[in-house]
Every structure is written in structure tokens, then in C-alpha cells.
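Schema walk-through. Below, the input block comes first and the output block second. Nothing else is stored per chain. Lengths vary across the set, and this one has 111 residues.
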Amino acid sequence: KLNEEKYKAALENVKARNDCESAAFAAAHSADDLVSKDSEDHRILLQESESLKKWLADNPAAPADAVRDRQKQFEAKVHPIIQKAYAEKGTSSSSSETTTEDDDKFFDGDK
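--- output ---
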């Protein structure tokens, strides 16, 4: 039973870290695809993405809750920029496509 609980906790930590890292890479990719490379928004997206990746590297033993909290802080800063970029491009960040539970909540506009 104890090993099962440790396994579940480790799995939860890995999933939280993967989700967080994916959000950082997705925001950096969005910066290059959606906003002008010489804009302040581009700089902020890349800076926040690098900051999040550095935090993950500096905190390898952070529990899943701490990782999710850090991801929420990150998303609070970058999500409005990405929403604005989609709006300026004439594309809604909450697309009409069917979504699944596997969809990245960061870009679905369902916050």
C-alpha cells in the first residue's frame, strides 16, 4: 500500500512537471507564431517561458501542487497576451473545434 501511494505521488509529480514544461514551450512557440518578434509581448512570452523552465530545473523535487501553482502564475501572465494575439489575428482562442480532456487547458480559453 505504501509503495502504491509513493508510485501515485511520483506519477502525479511527473504529470504536473510535464504539463508545466509543455505550457512553457507552447507559449514560446506561440510568441514566435503570433506576435511581432520586436514587440514587448514577444519579449514577455519568451522571458516568462524561460523563467518557468528555469524554475522547473531549479526545483526538481517540487511537489505536484507547487508545480501546478507555479504554472497558474505563469498562465496568469501569458494567457492574456496570447488571447490578445489571437484576437488581433482574427482567431478566437476558444475555437469551435471539439475539445477533449487531453486538450491543453492553457490554450482553450476555458479559464
